[in-house]
Amino acid sequence: MKKVKTAVITGSNSGIGLGIAHALAAEGHNVVINSFTERDEDHALAEEISSKHGNRTVYVKADMSKGDECRSLVEKAAEEFGAVDILVNNAGIQHVAAIEEFPVDAWDRVIAINMNSAFHTTAVALLIMRENNWGRVVNIASAHGLTASPYKSAYVTAKHGVVGMTKVVALETAEDPITCNAICPGYVLTPLVEAQIPDTMEKYGMDRDTVVREVLLERQPSKQFATVEQIGGTVVFLCSDHAAQITGTTISVDGGWTAL
Ligand code: NAD
After folding, report:
1. Of 57, 59, 101, 155, which is least surrounded by CB within 10 A?
2. Res 2: pLDDT
3. Domain of residue 92, CATH code
4. What's this model's pTM, rounded to 2 decimal places?
């Protein structure tokens, strides 16, 4: 993959999305980073990526809980760069509660941001990819797209949905030079995971180290977090020519979690 491509990464001003943005920028690609905020820091982040890697990076505000904004994110990227070749559906949030107590608005937000957004962005991006005769859709699912944990009903439902959607998109594009795959990370130490630590410490009466080893990494046999660089590298691989026949599947980056 020598030509400069244009990549859109949803939810990418932090954590895994930001790591993927750096990895694709390091390959020289144009990158669109995104979140729902419109702050100087967001645009400064885009400039920082461009100056570090010598590529073109822009920040586009769009709220991934809203279908029309998901669609316009891809359209704006195509207007800016003339194409969208790589779409990484990464935006995601978590809410932890027993199903009987799960707030309806939290359920709706998790499903909208973690699953529905990928439907909207993919629908628009595929039109552009088919026109340009090349495309890569990479969905950031989760080990929770393949297995379950208690108290994460909306998240597990959304991530299983994303894995299902990945297979359907792969079949609908199977004869085109377009692939669609899902990466299923185990625990990666990002703000999303950090935010779960205080509640878990309180819930189990544990200190931070015990929560990390015995709760968060309980099911991750390597007992190590995956890194944003490892997820970024996996996206770069899926966008390479070596991965042209990999479609409709999941790649776990989970330290052995789903082998258990
Ligand atoms: P994070 O909280 O660091 O990043 C989430 C990103 O999504 C942020 O950039 C945030 O601004 C953005 N976002 C949230 N709501 C949005 C909205 N309405 N519109 C646009 N953007 C929005 O989290 P992360 O850990 O980097 O997670 C990224 C993805 O990876 C998520 O889909 C998550 O489910 C998945 N994942 C994370 C882990 C992990 O251990 N961190 C494991 C498996 C899967």
Report:
1. 101
2. 55
3. 3.40.50.720
4. 0.96
What is the 34 CA–ligand 1 centroid distance (Å)? 11
For residue 142 and ligand 1, the question of a CB distance below 6 A is answered with: yes
Q: Give 30-59 pLDDT, tens digit per residue.
A: 999 999 999 999 999 999 999 999 999 999
Q: CA-to-CA distance for 242 and 193, rounded, in angstroms? A: 32
Q: What is the complex's ipTM, to 2 decimals?
A: 0.99
The residue range of the domain holding 132 is 6-188+226-259
Ligand 1, atom 20, residue with closest C-alpha: 35
| 114 and 206 fall within a common domain | no
Within a domain: 1? no
4, exposed or middle or buried, with CB in 10 Å at 0-12, 13-18, 19+?
middle
Distance 15 CA to ligand 1 centre (A): 7
Q: Dihedral sign, CA of 50, 27, 225, 111?
A: positive
Whether 65 is covered by a domain: the verdict is: yes
Distance 128 CA to ligand 1 centre (A): 25
What is the pLDDT confidence band of residue 88, given thresholds at 50, 70 and 90? very high
- Whether residue 140 has its Cβ less than 6 Å from ligand 1: yes
